[in-house]
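Regression test attached.
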Amino acid sequence: MQPDIAFESAARFLVVLHAMAAIVLVGASTHHVLIAIGYLRGRFKVRLGRIYAATIAVTYGITFGLGLLAYPTFRYHVRALYLDRYDAWASNLFDTKENFAALGIPLVLCAFVMSRVMDPKEDTALARAYAAFVILAAIIVWFGVLSGLVITMTRGV
Amino acid sequence: MRKADALFVAMAAGTIAFAFAFIIPMLASEPVAWYYPLEHRWAFEVAPTGLALDFFGRTLQAMVAWAVVVMITLPIAKRFKTLSVRAIGLATAWAVTAMLLVMLHYAWTLHFRRPVPAEIPTWYQPR
């Protein structure tokens, strides 16, 4: 008898929503990097930076949360029954992606909080730190989106 | 210390705590919460006895460590008068290095992993 896994019947819909949130996230992350680099070059679009930081905090949470809901179905039906047997590299890539995504959480939270309290015109040292966190978070987001596409092309839920 | 500086120190310390709390069950064979998706149950153990996910448990553990460290560091940081540019640079470097080290560890370990596939059940229909 086929096992009953949490959110299995909604897994495909959850992954579509996960992808939609990731599209918004990757766009906002890329724009946020440009804003943060602008702080280092003397171009201070502070309000826009705050909007992108908030957008990223919300969409990162939504993307991550939807991924968590679809994960048990993926873990059994996709990874355990197929990828581990035929495409182990995709299993490993998925686990790398999920671990990187979790590690992005404190970076996104830090960027969000700092965008609210710092003044990049006055705080040049904080602006450099902010840019470092924003760039690392964007690298994680881009890696997650690209590897997610490759894994889904190999085998989806 | 100014609010922005104190918050940054707390956030950087929280980031380091998150990174280490996330990886510690893997390095030190510490128990962590495992979810068994086929049995719909949770277990707090070092190694699973069947198909189980430790990702939920590790993420939760790391988020708790982040919250605790931020809450402890913030009032301590506020007691200091100023934060030098060098100190901000060091806090950034430590946080980013901790992240990169943990990411590198996962990338390296998982690149060479040989996963063990589950047994094919009788109901399984390949698509």
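Expected vs. actual: identical. The first strand of chain B starts at residue 32 and ends at 36.
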